[in-house]
Amino acid sequence: MVRINTILPEDTIEKLDIIAKDEHKSRSMLLREAAEKIIEDYQRRAEEKIKREQIKNAIDIQDRLRKKSGKWNAVSELRKWREMVK
Question: Per the domain annotation, does 27 fall within a domain?
Fold first, then answer.
């Protein structure tokens, strides 16, 4: 592990100490867990952003295909082909 030095307001340190004592953890452990949670949240948001972009791209492709196909009706086309197969 690497040691860091940071400056926090005194009331924040007091609140951290109360939580650490209540959780039976050291202040350092509490801050490590908080940092890990921040990293996990960041990664989750980054993954969600990528998924949203992929969905948007898929919708854009569908819109372009719909526009290109004009008034083509897929449902009636499928029904027609089903009737031909019978």
Answer: yes
